[in-house]
Write a structure and sequence with these properties.
The chain has 326 residues and is an alpha/beta fold. It is built from 9 helices and 15 strands. The strands form 3 sheets. Strands 3, 4, 5, 6, 7, 14 and 15 form a 7-stranded mixed β-sheet that branches. Strands 10-9-8-11-12-13 form a 6-stranded parallel β-sheet, with helices on both faces. Strands 1-2 form a two-stranded antiparallel sheet. β14, α9 and β15 form a beta-alpha-beta unit. α1 packs across α9, α2 crosses α3 and α2 crosses α7. The chain binds NADPH dihydro-nicotinamide-adenine-dinucleotide phosphate.
Amino acid sequence: MFKAIWLEQSAGRTEATLKEIDTAALPEGDTLVRVRWSSLNYKDGLAITGKSPVVRKFPMVPGIDFAGEVESCTSGAWRPGDQVVLTGWGHGEASFGGLAQMARVDGGKLVRLPSGLDARAAMSIGTAGFTAMLCVMALEAHGVTPDEGEVLVTGAGGGVGGFAVALLASAGFKVAAVTGRTSEGDRLRQLGASEILQRDQFSQPGRPLAKERWAGVVDSVGSHTLANACAATRYGGVVTACGLAQGMDFPASVAPFILRGITLAGIDSVSYPAAKRAAVWKRLARGLAPAVIGAMAEAVPLERAIPAADDLLAGKVSGRLVVDVG
Ligand code: NDP
């Protein structure tokens, strides 16, 4: 028996409890992992509170990512004791996730922890840091370099935004961070932001084109914020869109695309190809100092994960919550 956060639905409402379950309750898979650390992402907050239908079947163990050690593997791909991390692939939504002390998964979806990262550090980074790294790599792939100009990061007080600030700053970019919380300013400066901008400058409807400013953008917010970021992106600049914290809509015009040749690059971490993931984790291990990783995440025990999900959605969490599962 082991502990797990357990989601059930009754009369259309999600009920979350901390439960003891048996390994036999785990889904099929060739690899059994003893989970040491997981984390609470925006999506986990939605799943646990039931505020949005992200869970596709019940009962469910939430938790879109986890890190721990392999207990057994029938395919031979992993050995007992191997240190691994998993993010995305629908875990915590369509199949059991990481907010449990054991997980049984397809071993092909696991990534070996790169040297320099332990399970806690990997989950402090988690899906949020992984996604931020994908955004930075997309900017680079489209030719954005530090001497092209400033990069804007929206939702900077959150997990994706905070890691984007840190990764961009460590790569030499000048970063402007957008936040709705004045209390986040000092932390974001410590992560490497050179300017803090107020969220309401971006979140209201704006003009199709604004003064050109950004060489690149990492947007985890969507809606008017994304539209305004595009409108102020410099000729040939690149906007990466990975989130919808403000909304799923995109109330923009084509003007920045057809008059300034900007590129909008979509970022998905969930189904990102397995073969390319280890390289992303290696870059995260290289690009983030331990002090930065530590400053990004606060630890909570598994027993606190349910109330913490409410705090996360209420915007009370600074950076990320890492969950001590083991
Ligand atoms: P967090 O909750 O940690 O951060 C979201 C941040 O967005 C908040 O901290 C807040 O920043 C800002 N925000 C919240 N509400 C609003 C609003 N109404 N208007 C403007 N800004 C707002 O979430 P994550 O960083 O984990 O995820 C951010 C987004 O990215 C989510 O939508 C998530 O679903 C998505 N995501 C997508 C992934 C992908 O693969 N594409 C992977 C991971 C996440 P502040 O207080 O500083 O203003």
